Amino acid sequence: MAKKKTKSRSKRSSHKKGYVIISILALVSSLIVYLLFLRSSTKFDSDDTTIFISSNKAEKTYVKPVLKEVIEPINFRTFLVLADLFDYWKNIKPGRYKIERNSSIYSIFRKLKGGNQTTVNLVINKFRTKKDLSKFVSNKLNVSSSEMYEFLTNEDSLSLLGLTLEQAMTIIIPNTYSIYWDTNPKEFLMKMQKESNKFWDSDRIERAKKLGLSKEEVYVIASIVEEETNNPAEKPKMASVYINRLKKNMPLGADPTIKFAIGDFSIKRITMNEINNSSISPYNTYKNKGLPPGPICTPSIMTIDAVLKGEKTGYLYFCAKPDFSGSHNFASTAEEHFENARQYRIALDQRKIH
């Protein structure tokens, strides 16, 4: 009996030792995993830093030194092992990657290997020309201004999206968009077209139809109103003037379209000289009846909706008030308008604005 008890105690002692060894090994393994993969591995002091990998630089010779500047030396060696083990250098994904301070090697490698880019918040406001838009986009995304402009002015490229040269800017709805840094010109316009289609919901389309206008025509009118006034309260009324003129087949006579035709947006006073000098332009709304072929800027959502409001008025004219308050005097008759215009010209002359 004594021998059996001794053997039993010996087995229990052996099991305990086994558990202890396993626990120690597990602890050591966890510690190694933590030290190699999970502990903080960055060496910058700011809250985060951003790594940019363009498509023409998605190769080891470029990416390796960039990462070396971000990751602690000892952890960088771990990254190199992972990169070789999982063939990262042969499958580098271009993009914009934000690395937070104290990120682990595991999280950094997973982000880069998976192409989990950090998007750019693209805040689109008012742009008058395709060149202006192209320059803005090139400053935010990995595309040159010339590439963007070439796409916007290439009829064949735009036709792939069902757009014409004149319609291209009508899909740009000023707003804030989340977009990938390595987006190319075609992808950018596809994104804008998708967002534009969301904006033009059934309610807005129906309101445009009630005005007898297409969404592109509403956009063009809104672009003129946008340039005419910064006074939100006047925008529906001003839109009604242009719609009334269209219905009566009258020239719109919009001063901002002359500035657009000339390409000089600093002009403070439109005279017959500017009107005559731009007479051959389809954007000259003094010489040509109907709407210009395209927008003269990217109007705000508020201005587009002001046009869609469809305010009913009998106004055919408006003129800036002589007090330079930014408001306008509206008129239904030419006689009333001429008097308003005379008062404004006097104010201009008094201030020596030419």
| Alpha-beta classification | mainly alpha
- Rg over alpha carbons: 33 Å
What order do the SSEs take from the amino end to the carboxyl end, as H and E? HEHHEHEHHHEHHHHHHHEEH
Q: Tally the helices.
A: 15
- Taking pLDDT < 50 over at least 5 consecutive residues as the criterion, the unreliable ranges are none
Q: How is the main sheet built?
A: 2 strands, antiparallel
SS elements, strand count: 6
Q: Bin the helical content.
A: 40-55%
Give the strand content.
5-15%
Domain tally:
3
- For the termini, the CA-CA separation is 121 Å
Rounded mean pLDDT is 89
Strand order of the largest sheet: 1-2
Give a short summary of the structure.
The protein contains 15 helices and six strands. It has 354 residues and is mainly α. The protein is elongated.
Describe this protein's structure.
The protein has helices spanning about 1-40, 60-70, 75-85, 105-115, 130-140, 145-150, 155-160, 185-200, 200-210, 215-230, 235-245, 255-260, 270-275, 300-310, 335-350, and strands at about 50-55, 95-100, 120-125, 175-180, 315-320, 330. The protein is mainly alpha-helical and about 350 residues long. The model has no long low-confidence stretch (mean pLDDT about 90). The radius of gyration is 33 Å and the shape is elongated. The protein has three domains: about 50-115, no CATH class; about 120-200, no CATH class; about 200-315, no CATH class. The chain has a two-stranded antiparallel sheet with strand order 1-2. The protein has a two-stranded antiparallel sheet with strand order 3-4. Strands 5-6 form a two-stranded antiparallel sheet.
